[in-house]
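Table S5 (text form). Sequence records supplied for joint modeling of the four-component complex.
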Amino acid sequence: MESKMNTREKILTTAAILFQKNGYHATGLNEIIKESATPKGSLYYYFPNGKEELAAATIKLMGDKIQHDIKEELAQNSDPVQAIKEFILDLAWKFNEKEDQENCFSIGLLALETVSISDSLRKACTEVYDMWTDTYYQKLVSSGLSSEKAKELSLILQLMIEGAITISLIRNDNTMLVATAEKIPVLLKDK
Amino acid sequence: MESKMNTREKILTTAAILFQKNGYHATGLNEIIKESATPKGSLYYYFPNGKEELAAATIKLMGDKIQHDIKEELAQNSDPVQAIKEFILDLAWKFNEKEDQENCFSIGLLALETVSISDSLRKACTEVYDMWTDTYYQKLVSSGLSSEKAKELSLILQLMIEGAITISLIRNDNTMLVATAEKIPVLLKDK
DNA sequence: GTCTATAAAAGGATAGAC
DNA sequence: GTCTATCCTTTTATAGAC
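The corresponding C-alpha cell record, covering 382 residues in total, follows.
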C-alpha cells in the first residue's frame, strides 16, 4: 500500500505519524527519510523550506483527516448529545488501537511545541482547531440551539476533548475519554 | 535574587522555566547553563544522569509549586464552586502576565513529550496530575459532596483546566480560560 | 565543588552528479 | 526528479585541571 504512494505522499504521511507521536523536535529529518524509504534530496525537492514547511503540510493533512472523521461520526446520530457522546467514545476506542499508525487523532503535542518556535505553524494549528470547533458548532445549531449557545458549547467541547486526550496520553489510559463522553449529556443539558 | 540561590537551585529553576516554555527537546543543556550562568561541570555534578534526571527534578519542582498555588487559591473561598471558578480566573490572569517567568502554571508540553521518550518521566508527570486532582477532590468533599461524585468531578475539572490552558497557549489568548471559569457553576450544579 | 576544553553523535541543510 | 556525499551547527556527555 505504501508502495502505491508517490514519494511526496510517502514523506508526508510518515512525517505526520512521527510528528504526532513524538513531536516536532524529537523527530529528525533523517528518521523521516529512513522510515519512509525516500532519499533526502526528494524531501528538499518537495519541501524546499525544509522541516518547517514539511510540518505545515502535515498539520494541514492531519487537520483534514481528523475533520473528516469528526463529520463522519457526528452524521451517524441526529441527536447532537448522543452523536457527540458516541464520537468521544470512538476516540476512546481508537486510543486503545493506537498501535495502528493510521489512527491519528490529535495534534496537541505538535501544536504546543510550535507555540514557542514558529508563529506561522502556531496559526496553522489554530486554524485546524477552529475548523474542528466549527463542525461541533454546526451540529449543535442544526439541532435547534441558538447560535450563541452553540458557539459557547462548541468551544467547551473542543477544550474538553483536547484535555481528555492529553490526560489519556499522559496516563496511558483511555478512562478519561470515557468519563468525558459520559459527562456530555450533563454539559449539553444546560441549553 | 538569583544570586542568593546556590548553583543547584539556579540550574533547577532556569531549567524549569525553559522546559515549561519551550519543551524538553527544544531546550539544550548549553542553553540552561548559559541562561543560569553556571558551569556545565556543575550540572553533571548535581545531576549525574544528565538531562533526564534534571527534567525529573523540574517536574517535581513545578508540580509542587503549582500544587501550592492551587491550595492557596482554593482556600480563599469556602464555597467550592466559587473557589474553583476564581482559581481558573486567576489562571487566566496569570496567563496574560506570563512574561513574568516566575508564573509557571502548566507542565502540559513537557508531559506530552515525555510520553514517547521516558516512562519514568511520564509517570512523574502522572503523579503531579494526580496530586493536583486530589486537591480539587479534597475541596469538593469538604463541601459535602459524596466521595464518588467528588472523584468524578475532580477528574473532569483537571481535564477541563488542562484543555483550557492548552487551547489558550495555542491561540495565544486567555478567553478559553475565562469561558471555562464561567462554565464551572453549570458543571458543578449536577450533584 | 568549580570550571573549561573537547569528544562523539545527531541535527538540519546544501551541492552537485545522474 | 532522484540520489548521495558532505558541510556546519548543535546536541549530550566526559575528562581532567584547579
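Note: Chain A touches chain B at residues 21-23, 25-26, 108-109, 111-113, 115-117, 122, 125-126, 129, 152, 155-156, 158-164, 166-167, 169-172, 176, 179-180, 183, 186-187, 190 (CB under 8 Å).
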